[in-house]
Structure formats: structure tokens, C-alpha cells
UniProtKB/TrEMBL annotation:
<comment type="function">
    <text>Catalyzes the formation of N(7)-methylguanine at position 46 (m7G46) in tRNA.</text>
</comment>
<keyword id="KW-0819">tRNA processing</keyword>
<keyword id="KW-0949">S-adenosyl-L-methionine</keyword>
<feature type="binding site">
    <location>
        <position position="155"/>
    </location>
    <ligand>
        <name>substrate</name>
    </ligand>
</feature>
<keyword id="KW-0808">Transferase</keyword>
<feature type="binding site">
    <location>
        <position position="45"/>
    </location>
    <ligand>
        <name>S-adenosyl-L-methionine</name>
    </ligand>
</feature>
<comment type="pathway">
    <text>tRNA modification; N(7)-methylguanine-tRNA biosynthesis.</text>
</comment>
<comment type="similarity">
    <text>Belongs to the class I-like SAM-binding methyltransferase superfamily. TrmB family.</text>
</comment>
<feature type="binding site">
    <location>
        <begin position="195"/>
        <end position="198"/>
    </location>
    <ligand>
        <name>substrate</name>
    </ligand>
</feature>
<dbReference type="GO" id="GO:0043527">
    <property type="term" value="C:tRNA methyltransferase complex"/>
</dbReference>
<dbReference type="Pfam" id="PF02390">
    <property type="entry name" value="Methyltransf_4"/>
</dbReference>
<dbReference type="InterPro" id="IPR055361">
    <property type="entry name" value="tRNA_methyltr_TrmB_bact"/>
</dbReference>
<dbReference type="InterPro" id="IPR003358">
    <property type="entry name" value="tRNA_(Gua-N-7)_MeTrfase_Trmb"/>
</dbReference>
<feature type="binding site">
    <location>
        <position position="119"/>
    </location>
    <ligand>
        <name>S-adenosyl-L-methionine</name>
    </ligand>
</feature>
<keyword id="KW-0489">Methyltransferase</keyword>
<feature type="binding site">
    <location>
        <position position="97"/>
    </location>
    <ligand>
        <name>S-adenosyl-L-methionine</name>
    </ligand>
</feature>
<protein>
    <recommendedName>
        <fullName>tRNA (guanine-N(7)-)-methyltransferase</fullName>
        <ecNumber>2.1.1.33</ecNumber>
    </recommendedName>
</protein>
């Protein structure tokens, strides 16, 4: 969902280049260790929206580094406001297009990529825009470490079915698959951090679909 432009958010983003990287040079990989000031494991959320998921994750795990990859400047500003309020030094915001993820991160550098409630692009002619289309999966494979993982959640049954098929066709291995995440075992639910959309959809009684997958063969 596209957010309405908020002047304060745009201004805040422009005032904090140390926390928000905008339009990076595609010819040069980003030195994430320099931006974070350490070489802790990196996890990425593609399309962070207002950032509840990624900021909560960063707050819970100070031993890891997190990157919110978000195209909209207003959304980046909302995430930044939370980051500054909570003092999340282990969170960086990258304003850029997910289609360029392989240009923003070096090969074999990322532990987890989170895809939360991505745009389903339901029309067949738009399938190449889906974040689980094979061209995106190929880029995730480059960025992820050998044992890295994709964690995907959606309320859209069609997108979920497509994503399972797309990942299977790509030769991916599924560590976990659920067609009703909020009714899984307690040990699974304890690990789950709800996004804004997830809370809204689940409150209406909609099932939440989820999977964890990697590029390792059995």
C-alpha cells in the first residue's frame, strides 16, 4: 500500500544520512560493516512498510544487524522515527528497489530475508513483479549465505500457492510451511512477530500463510 507523503518524514530522512541510505550507487556494493560499526549477522526485510516488524526484531536482538529495504520515503521516515525513539543502532534503512537487492549486498553476506505481506500482483501479466518470482529468488540466492533462509508471510492464498510452486520449481527446501500460522504450536508462535497488516488481517479471522525456505538441497 502506498502511503501518503508526509513532509515531516521526508525531512527527517534527509536529516539522517547516517541511518538512511538513499539511492546508493549500483556500481558499488555497500559497506554494511562500516555503516553498522561491526560485522554482526545481517537480516533484511524487503518492503518494511511502517516498520513495526523490523524495529521489534531489532529491539529483541541487539546482537544482530537489520536492514529495512523500503522504496517509499514516507515509510522510511516512519521507520526512522521509531529507530531514533528506541535507539536502535543495529537498524539501518535502505531506500531502494528490491529488484536491485543483489547490487546493495555482496554475495553470501545475509542470514535471513523476510518477505512480509508483499503486494500479490494478482494479474498473470504482472507475475514478474511478485517478490517470489524466479528472478527475485535468483537474487536472494546470491545475497544469502549458504545456510541462509527466506521467511515469507501473507494473507493472500493465491500468492502463497504461487510462492510455494515458484520456490519448489527453483529447487528450494522448505523448513516450515503453514496455512494457518496463528494456530501453530506455541514454540512457533513464540518466534512470530506480527506486522501491522498481519494484526489487522488476523483480527478479522483471516488465516495467515507462512513458510521458511532455503536453497540447500536435501
Amino acid at each position: 500500500m502506498r502511503l501518503r507523503n508526509k513532509p515531516w518524514a521526508i525531512k527527517l530522512v534527509n536529516e539522517h544520512p547516517e541511518s538512511v541510505l538513499q539511492n546508493p550507487d549500483p556500481e558499488k556494493k555497500i559497506d554494511w560493516a562500516a555503516r553498522f560499526g561491526n560485522d554482526h549477522p545481517i537480516e533484511i526485510e524487503v518492503g518494511s512498510g511502517k516498520g513495526h516488524f523490523i524495529t521489534t526484531l531489532a529491539e529483541k536482538h541487539p546482537e544482530k544487524n537489520y536492514v529495512a529495504l523500503e522504496l517509499q520515503t514516507t515509510a522510511a521516515g516512519i521507520i526512522l522515527r521509531t529507530k531514533l525513539e528506541k535507539g536502535l543502532d543495529n537498524l539501518q534503512i535502505l531506500r531502494g528497489d528490491a529488484a536491485n537487492i543483489d547490487l546493495f549486498f555482496a554475495e553470501n553476506t545475509t542470514d535471513v530475508i523476510y518477505l512480509n505481506f508483499s503486494d500479490p500482483w494478482p494479474k498473470t501479466r504482472h507475475k514478474k513483479r511478485r517478490l517470489t518470482y524466479k528472478s527475485f529468488l535468483a537474487k536472494y540466492k546470491q545475497v544469502l549465505k549458504t545456510d541462509g533462509q527466506i521467511q515469507f508471510k501473507t494473507d493472500n492464498a493465491g500468492l502463497f500457492a504461487y510462492s510455494v510452486q515458484s520456490m519448489n520449481n527453483f529447487g528450494m527446501h522448505f523448513d516450515f510451511v503453514s496455512v494457518d500460522l496463528h494456530h501453530e504450536k506455541p514454540e512457533i508462535l513464540e518466534k512470530n512477530i506480527e506486522t501491522e497488516y498481519e494484526h489487522k488481517f488476523a483480527a478479522k479471522g483471516n488465516p495467515i500463510y507462512a513458510l521458511w525456505a532455503n536453497f540447500l538441497s536435501e
